[in-house]
Amino acid sequence: MNNYKMNKKNILITCKLDDNALYRHLNPLLKSSFIKKIVIIREKPGVSNKKIEYIVSTYRNKILKNTQKIRLILKNSKHADIIWGFYLVPHGINALIAAKIKGKKVGISLIGTDINIHLKSKYKKILIYALNKFNYITVTGRKSRRYLIKEGVDKNKIFILPNAVDTKRFKIKKRKKVYDFLFVGRLVQIKNVDKIILLLSKLNENNDYKLAIIGDGPEKNNLIKLTKKLNMEKNIKFLGYKDDVENYMNMSKFFIMASESEGLPLSMLEAMSCGIVPIVPDVGDITDVANKNNAIIYKSINTGLYEKIRKYSTDKKAYHQLSKNASKKSSIYSDDNVIKFWEKIIIK
User: Fold this and answer.
1) According to the CATH classification, is domain 2-164+335-346 in 3.30.43.10?
2) Where do the domains of the chain lie?
3) Which one of 82, 150, 302, 347 is CB 3.0 to 4.6 Å from 343, fit for a cystine?
4) Angstrom distance (rounded) from CA 249 to CA 253
5) In this structure, are residues 94 and 57 in contact, taking their beta carbons and an 8 Å threshold?
């Protein structure tokens, strides 16, 4: 019993995660019996829990904001066993600076943007140097881990920590299939939602497929204009942000993405947990989960993809098998299983 008490950890986290992402990342930690308290430095409070204390950063200017966050980390790190940043720039760097000043252990959770953009920028050498100063580095899959090792990051510091799925919420429900395709995410250029719309236009030369788009962002107006230009208003619904996204997943046949870069998208895992078949690009760590037995994987949107979609749209038996396999695969990313990943990393 004494060892159990000694192993309990206090974690200080700095991040800018939206409320949903914050909840999904925190939930396994909150459920862990090894976590005593979590102090979160963020621009606003989020999910409420007796284990959590929020320290709010108020500056809007980027330089002043980061300076203030470092000061807040330093001020509130006295009882922290570990300081943790979600995403490398700037949160991970802020956590690293403060941790080194205070002599604390420090960890960083990286995502697709960190791997595919920041670590391929002109600041790459500096960031790789910084990563080697962390005690713990988490990535979402094997491809990301291999890339970091290849670039010179100490392999003993790199751990695979997948996103956690709330399998009690995201599960198969009997719903009428209203949409053929569902996109969930921010409407930004890197997500290439325009390519999804163009794909649908091509498919609809001989069919009447329907697409639901959940999410908002700076590209929304451009995407609506493209939809009108292609005379697809009846086939494409822009639904905005939805609190009950799981219901729309159960009302859809395929979950579709066309991103240029990703880590391991949580929305894809949630969709698979609902038994919806993903149509996804071979980028980031997606193929750690999605494969030919549970998804439609493509390298580029081309003729071959059209044929695969048509096949699984009409062959109910083949579709059902993919759906069943998708749901089964996603179950390993439940909160209870991800707790074990966290505990292997930080409970020493």
Assistant:
1) no
2) 2-164+335-346, 179-333
3) 347
4) 8
5) no
